[in-house]
Amino acid sequence: MMNKDMVDNSIPVDTYQNVDPAVAAAEQLPDELMLTEYVDHVIETAISPEDRAYLEQVLEADPQLSQIFDTVVETASEFSGGGHVTGPGSGISDSIPARLSDGEFVMTKKAVDQLGPENLQVMMDDAERAYDGGQIKAGMTEEDNVKNEMLRSNRMPSLT
Predict the structure, then answer these.
(1) Do 94 and 135 belong to one domain?
(2) pLDDT at residue 3 above 60?
(3) CB-CB contact of 7 with 13 (8 Å)
(4) Beta carbons of 87 and 38 less than 8 angstroms apart
(5) pTM, 2 dp
(6) The domain containing residue 42 runs over which residues?
C-alpha cells in the first residue's frame, strides 16, 4: 500500500501552475451542458443551416434516432489519432469532451501556442515512428536519414 505522503514517480509533476484553479473552475461547464454545446458546435460546423433544420426536426420526432445520433457523435468525438484539438470554449474552459487513454499526455493551450501545434505534431510523429522501429521520415531519402542520425549522434554525450 502506498503511503499518501509518497509520490508516484511514474506521473510527471506539474511544475508550472499556469492558471488560477478558481478561474479554470469558473469557465468549466457541467458535463452534460458541455457535451450538448460540443454536439451543437459539431453540427454547426459540419452541415448547412437547411440540413441542420431538417436534422433537428427529424430528431425531435424520433427519440430513438436522437439517442442513436448522440451516441454516434460522442463516439466520433474521440481523439484516438492525437493531434491539435479545435472546438468551442477558451484555452482553459474544458469545453471539449475528450476520451483519453492511460499513459497519454495532455498539454495546455499556452504550451501548445508556445511550441506550435505543427512542431508538436512532428515531435509526436517522430516519437511514434521511432517507438515502432522506423527511422525514415516520409519524403526523406536514405542519405538524408543517415545525415540526420549522424547529427543526432553527435549531440549525445560520450560514455568514455
Answers:
(1) no
(2) no
(3) yes
(4) yes
(5) 0.51
(6) 19-115
